[in-house]
Design brief:
heterodimer; A: alpha+beta; FAD/NAD(P)-binding domain; Arc Repressor Mutant, subunit A; DNA polymerase, domain 1; 6-stranded antiparallel beta sheet; 5-stranded parallel beta sheet; B: about 450 residues; Four Helix Bundle (Hemerythrin (Met), subunit A); 4 domains; 6-stranded mixed beta sheet
Chain lengths: ~625, ~450
Amino acid sequence: MDRFDVIVIGGGHAGAEAAALSARSGAATLLLTQHLETIGQMSCNPAIGGIAKGTVVREVDAFGGIMGRATDLARIQFRMLNRSKGPAVWSPRAQCDRGLYRRSVRSLLERLPRIRFVQGTVSSLLMEGQRVAGVVTSDGRRFSARAVVVTAGTFLRGRIHMGLDAPIPAGRAGESPAVEMAQHLENIGLTVERFKTGTPPRIDGRSVDLAGLERQDGDAGSYWFSHFERPAHPPQLPCYLTHTGPELNDIITAHIELSALYGGAISGRGPRYCPSIEDKVVRFPDAERHQVFLEPEGLETNEMYVNGLSTSLPPEVQRAYLRSIPGLERVEMTRPGYAIEYDYFPPTQLNATLGVKGVDGLFFAGQINGTTGYEEAAGQGVVAGVNAAAVALNREPMTIGRDEAFIGVLIDDLVTRGVDEPYRLFTSRAEFRLLLRQDNALRRLLPLVSSLGTLTDSECRTAEEFLEEEDKILGLAREQMVSPSQVNDLLRTAGTPPITQAIRVADLVRRPRVVLHEVLLAAGQVVDLAHSNWGEVELKYEGYVARERELASKTASMDTFELPIDFDYPSAITIAYEAREKLSQVRPSTLGQAGRVPGVTPSDLQNLVVEVLRRRRSAPVP
Amino acid sequence: MLTDPIAALATPPGRAALAVVRLSGDGAFEVAKKVIVGFRAKPPRTARLAAFLAVDGTPIDRGLYLSFPGPASYTGEDMVELTCHGGVLTAARLLAALQAAGARPAAPGEFTRRAVLNGKMDLVQAEGVADLVDATAQIQARRALHQLEGGLSCRLTALREQLLGLLASLSYEVDFPEEDDGPIERSALVGELDTLLAAVERLLASAPIGERIREGALVVFAGRPNAGKSSLFNALLGSERALVTELPGTTRDTIEASVDLEGWPVRLADTAGLWEAPDRLDQLGIAVSRRYLDAADLVLLCVEVGLELEPDEMRILEHHPSFLVRTKVDLAGSRGQGIGVSILTGEGLDELKRRLVDRLFADGSGGYPDLEPMLTRERHLVALDRARDALREARPHLVQNGDAVLAAHHVRVAVSALDELVGVVDTDEVFERVFRRFCVGK
């Protein structure tokens, strides 16, 4: 039997990061997946990043993760979303060549020592009492490990729906689901629920009439998600914007009974922020048009992804409504869209390490925890990978605070609040949004990451140099004076009043829309945009950032008050009944976490503290 | 959070000769220093007289305080007991000052709970106390809720709802930049904010009514000599308290009397005539009346029927909250504007009383405010003040090209100010609104 420290089941975005971080932590790691070719597969839209998600990619990269580097290698269009909004919510997003992305993930993983790849379908875990000891594949191979990370995505009892035909058992179009493993996990006592999600049809770009459509090009200039490497980008491609009209509404209304979603074939709940086109038409009947984005699948194909039209209608209806859309009158559909139902495990069954409560060495990451999105999966993969390695190597577990990273917000939301629809990150989920930015991801996380040792020495040096360079530019901004003749043209363009006498660069940059590196350039100082961004945002938000940091440190004290994991909530009768129920389900590890459990009031918290301290006092001294 | 300074009223709220406010926790003495002039913790358990000030230096009261350095105190922590004059307003102001100085309002039973934690009671007692405290807290909570259901809290809940709506719009703008509906017009958001701000300001402006209910509203009579002020004063008072004569300038000093007007507490003050008088006594009387005029919740300017208004009288009507009362309407003459009354026939007296009460206690709206405890009201005031400031700060970021994130930051502060009164915000509540209103999903 082959022996490993850590086994990662699944090679999607959670699995890839879990394997990478486990290996980087120093654990002998096995990545076990049904198809080695689909490691790093983008199952849905061909884009990485976006609101809050782009920041997560930067955070994953700060740990030494895969996603940022793979995106830099595979991106065929880049845009900084929210550029017109405050810099705290600037959100990098890249369209990617699907194939190139997948191959980049694979080759980046293969660069890492201590990682092995094996193709196989896991059917069950090997257990020693309440501790995981390894896995068995459906063809009878056994692999031993101290820790196992399950990143099964939508594969656990996945069922694809197109119309009312019998659903097709599948984990992704054309790939078999994992049924035995799902049953096995249920048998070890975990609660299982069902979610659904959907994907839109894809089309042959050669059959699209682009002439009348709005072309969307990416931003000029360079941006790298990775803090460590700056590869050349592939050639860049545009997206196209079109829209649905009344005819599409009519087609969908006429066939609504054929939708798996509305015909009653699907019971699982889907995400409200990513509705199917049926949902849009039914829920917003007055909306005459909906945007449709045509996104390139890659450089070597004409196939396009039709973003905005996810559906569970039969393929022939999909083709009909596609052809009602301007530019798509003669379109050929290459693959129909579909809805997929799958098992997930309500994540309140997990600790903030992503370890399964009550099963030593078992970790879950990604869609199996009820999330959606590549980035959310990747962020969880990082945490699960680090902690699986920590179990195997007898190290302290790692948790990330809500004020440290969006990954911390994501995981705390999952394990504390649970999910009632597929979970996606938004910036508004973070109470310290001004602290959690794409420009300071490395700075926020480097102390933690350094203590984990997941970066190589040379990466550590690069990271430190990066931050030093940023500090230097901020220092320069606070020192350097600029004269009216140097900057007044620039100020006019920014729509802000000119200056009449020399002023410090820092004071100027506090004005909205005044860009630090442009001002420095006007003053004859050439700096790298990648390094000046942080200083600029710090200057613009100076007072606010300080206030949020102070608030964060206040709530942090709640998170240092530890609660016993085996606390007997039902007997704590001074706590309101509802709160007792919720608390015994979630089993929070700190008072801070208890306070974020929905339905727990400040008065319940007070009583909880009294109960905990009282029992601590009356506990027999060993 | 377990040992942070807390403060609460230790005596029952309401009219009383004295009220006791307790302060306990780490840093209790630091908090006390900011409110008690010349505060000293030593020697302990010794009563000292001192002035109590609000954090901005406004005097609140003079009273006694005692310090109890922990662990020799009720809670086992550093404690201060402050005794001020009774009546809820003074105690509430003192509490508000302690809160502004860093103390948190204590949760029901929190002093006792701390006593338990610090081993001031044994475990058997503790179990009893914990259950009891919890039980009372729930009843209190329910009772408070019930009380609030009438007026102000409904309005606060509605305000919070609208604030969440604004927050949802900003969340939509930040988190959903590529949607069908496109960005929301900023001018619409500014309009929403202004409406909210006006509502908060209206609520704040109505707050003095609470004070009037506790202290009695001050109604000051003004008018030239022999305008019938004292007669009207007596008629409203229902007794021959003021000296009424036909000679101009008979009332030399100010006479004040408390009266229940249709059940509402009013202090009536009859002042000397406003006109220059030859002797010093009258000049003194005028000085008093000017001071009363400035303090008045309402001035009753009495002008005999048929007479034109003098410039001084016009000034009073312009510069003070006031009613013009036409006296002696039993005599012949043009009534002109104002409320006509006759002491002789009793005409117009009921009308005047009704309008007085309406103006003083219902802001002229015809309805009456809920009579929740002033303590709660004071908390409302503090919270609303914070909400107003936050909304004002949000405004410049809400305009076209403003930073939505900073606008949202301030609106969130406003919401959290109200949360302290009516419940804690949940991010899901915000998203619920986003998904209800907008068709999102690129």
